[in-house]
Amino acid sequence: MAILQFDVNGEQVSREAGVRARDLVRLPPQTLAVWVNGQTLDVDRPLTEGGQLQFLTFADSAGRHVFRHSSAHLLAQAVKRLWPEAKLGTGPALEDGFYYDIWLPEPLTEADLPRIEAAMRDIVRENLAIERLELSREEALALFHDRGESFKEEIIARIPDDAVISAYRQGEFVDLCSGPHLPETGLIGALRLTQVSGAYWRGNEKNPMMTRIYGTSFPDQESLERYLAQIEEAKLRDHRKLGAQLDLFTFREEAPGFVFWHAKGHAVYRTLEEFSRRLQARHGYQEVATPWVYRVGLWERSGHWDHYRDNLFLIDRDDELQGLKPMNCPGHCLLFKGATRSYRDLPWRLAEYSPLSRYERSGALHGLMRVRGFHQDDAHLFVRPDQIREEMFGVLDLVDIVYRTFEMPYEVVLSTRPDDYMGELALWERAEQELEEVLRARGLKYQINPKDGAFYGPKLDVYAVDSLGRRWQCATAQLDFQLPEKFELEYVDQDGLAKRPVMIHRAILGSIERFLGILVEHYKGAFPPWLAPVQVRILPITDKQLDYARHIERLLSERGVRVEVDERNQKIGYKIREAQLAKVPEMLVVGGRDQDNQTVSLRSREDGDRGAIALTQYVSQVVDRIRMPGFTD
RNA sequence: GCUCACGUAGCUCAGCAGGUAGAGCACGUCCUUGGUAAGGACGAGGUCACCGGUUCAAUCCCGGUCGUGAGCUCCA
């Protein structure tokens, strides 16, 4: 028998091969699994090689993963106890929970969840040992066939020939699974099933619909409750809820997928757009406005008809189809073709903010995040091949300025050639190489997403990280060698010959609607002063100060401050409460004393009462505080 | 688009087991003129999403449509 050497947290231990991790040393409390040379294993798994060994607990992400995965099995076992005819699909661990897809003879509702939870707690109380079985393909097929698990049989058929087939048993329950798992069910101290929904078997909408049950689990009740409180907190930030509360925007069933911008929301929207507009003007972009309805021939030429038809809003008039634009690129190509272009004209940077329409499937709509009518800070750069590098640099400059302004860190992902790509392979390879060079030259950390590029070219996607740590894809920069071909775009080069330009599609905010939704959640509705829909609210103590309040309002308004007076006949505490809930950054309390002394009593949203200050002084200060970041006027 | 759930006043929600609806906030009028997070009284406001069915009778039961939510799928 071979002797294996282990390094257990610095302690050297040697044992015969086949020893179980739990027998190496005294198992630390709350051990969920072990980590041996980069592999996570059951504590009861016979070890076949030595090396570094660590015990995993709930504090380790790999440990949590095992914990949630076993929780999914627990769920499946409970469901099988309640519905013996249920058939198991798959049940993985998630970032902070787990789910199991199960075929059931009848639909399930959330009202059934407590019953299932109770059955799960029974199994926890039984503290069943969880045992790993290794099976031959025939044994596995026979086992799951006998148990009526047809989906499992399907999975077994797809397991490669050389792979080990394993299953895990706890009590009467067996599940096909590569593991690892907890040693016993009693470790799952607290659990909660959170929701139930449908999911297609193997994610294909032609397959049967399974019932997907989501849940989460923790070692103890306290951690579970802390987690559930966090979820409640995130719900309070939901932009749809805050949008209505703060009177920013609403949706109505008369126009699904389109936003009704209220005056306040539109003020934020316009400020955001203006920020982008001024930034782009400074970076050499020209803003244009092109048509939003085109004859269908244009979409045929651009390739949208073949690749994007389902998402086009179509209009059928006088026996001719026309389509609302989902993107600006074809219009910009037509503009490019409208005159003879010289190499001296390049790079030619066209920006546009006009409305775009995409027919999203009804189930895809989601507040401001996924709409059918929206606007982008869209631009197309027509460049010579030798300018790609520098222009991509410029785009990343803009990304950096914008995301720093909103205090959002970001991550970059390079997406490469998909299977259904168009164009020449050599062009693709060259383009992908160029993008990597730019990223490396900028010293940006990036990930590669293989085969996730657009069919016309590789792309860089930027993911902004918000204050809850969630990632949102906003900015994108996509190289395009296809569209210039389709539109036969040309410029006259230095040598007098016609050459084909390269296009770069790019957006920094992406959809302005969506970006605003992200900002609402990021700031929890408390926009920084320059973005706030109402920057200053004046609160007269009594109606004797109304004239003075209106005088201040006029002074501020003339200097571009978004200001309003709370003229209602209410006590000051009431007005303050309402202004505070409306998340107005600055409140000016004005009473008799202030009027006599020509002062205002400033209250800030964050810091509360700031005391009296001369009116003239306040006016000059506040103008600085609401200035658009990065601009001097 | 698919699965499940939901749709009652501008908003948040109640409405037991079929008998044509109720609260708080917001809104209006009046009283109150109050210095840093809710002063008081009174009032107006609803085709119970829409269409159809069952029933003596439907907000409630059944079917369909629309919308919303969660998830799936999709997202050049």
From TrEMBL:
Its EC number is 6.1.1.3. The keyword RNA-binding applies. Keywords: Aminoacyl-tRNA synthetase, ATP-binding, Cytoplasm, Ligase, Metal-binding, Nucleotide-binding, Protein biosynthesis, RNA-binding, tRNA-binding, Zinc. SUPFAM superfamilies: Class II aaRS ABD-related, Class II aaRS and biotin synthetases, ThrRS/AlaRS common domain. It is found in: Cytoplasm. GO terms for biological process: threonyl-tRNA aminoacylation. GO terms for cellular component: cytoplasm. Binds 1 zinc ion per subunit. Residues 275-528 form the Aminoacyl-transfer RNA synthetases class-II family profile domain. Zn(2+) binds at C329, H380, H505. Its cofactor is Zn(2+). NCBIfam families: thrS. Homodimer. This is Threonine--tRNA ligase. The lineage of its organism: Bacteria, Bacillati, Bacillota, Clostridia, Eubacteriales. The gene is thrS.
